[in-house]
Amino acid sequence: MQLRSIKLENFRNYTDLALDFSPGVNVFLGQNAQGKTNLLEAIYVLALTRSHRTHLDRDLINWEAKTARISGQVERRTGKLPLELSLTSKGKKARMNHLDQPKLARYIGQMNVILFAPEDLELVKGAPQNRRQFLDREFSQMSPKYLYTANQYKAILKQRNQYLKQLNTLKAQDQVFLDVLTDQLIEYGSDLIQQRLNLLEQLDAAAVPVHQEITQGQEHLTLKYVSQLDIHELDSLEQIQKSLHERFQKLRSREIQLGTTLLGPQRDDIQFLVNEHDVAVFGSQGQQRTTALAVKLAEIELMYMQTGEYPILLLDDVLSELDSARQTQLLAAMQDRVQTFLTTPSLNDIASQLIKTPKIFQVSAGKITEIKTDDRDD
Fold first, then answer.
1. Partners of 343 in the beta sheet?
2. Less crowded by CB within 10 Å, the N or C end of the chain?
3. Phi and psi dihedrals of 139, rounded to 5?
4. Domain boundaries, the chain
5. Which fold has domain 126-305?
6. Mean pLDDT for the stretch of residues 359-367
7. Could you give the CA distance from residue 7 to residue 30 in angstroms, rounded to a whole number?
8. Residues annotated within a binding site
9. Do 72 and 83 meet the contact criterion of CB atoms below 8 Å apart?
10. Whole-number Å distance between alpha carbons of 94 and 87
């Protein structure tokens, strides 16, 4: 999978930009606040219809405009696919192959991207919410079923929480409706948990050999799903449903008292174990970064296994955060397989000798110009 070209209109600090890309490595040079990250964000938004930096579409629109537009030409095994996303303060509209897409869920997954930014190095020791978002973001690209289940679950969870608040304030008395919402939440929640378990097991299988290679066989990585249920004792969807039902019955009065849902995949987590110890608690910073890198590299392989195509890799100023050994591992993994977009203040910050024939761009104040090989100041 490759993004061959992109056009931006009034996106962030780009009022009018059109670029053609290399199928290999594309390097964007520039100092901070010039627009390097904005470009990678545009690619991310084109793929997933939302930003990794803000929840407000208005933030993505140039302050002098009311509408922003991102369009790109994606090349897949099945052929070329034009994608387009229009953004306003009131919402967004997606087009695929020049046809409007009434449902964004049908659009997502047509271009798969993996973003690796400095904050991703905090995946291991950061907040549980970040790891849940990581699961939902990556697995939704790989599986339309996962995306559908996650969206349905979130919608019912929101409705149930609202109704619990009404029960709590005596604005509603009908607990039969709460039973209906709980049954729906259990149906989609158990399915979501099972899908997470299956995909996390595959991600674990892909991450283990990568991690062992980085650590030269000295460490063993395990990815463990953490739930309020005794999840690893439950062998089927039916058992997960039964366990959720029993727990919800016990929590009913407390949920009404607090006005919120206390159980479900929205409260689950991932634990990263290195040599059977929680690396977030007992690991060094180097071990934590190695774990995050191994998981990101494993994502590339898992996405290929799930979709039949390698994703597009976005590296936002992350190489300068890695030592030379980890840089080498990352660059070797992407070479000749994954189209890569890489931002950096300087080529001196990366092991550029490992990148074969990159296409290099200079970014300055919202303007991007290609630097020809002969023009490079080595």
1. 28, 316
2. C
3. -70, -30
4. 1-112+309-378, 126-305
5. Glutathione S-transferase Yfyf (Class Pi); Chain A, domain 2 (1.20.1050)
6. 90
7. 20
8. 30-37
9. yes
10. 9
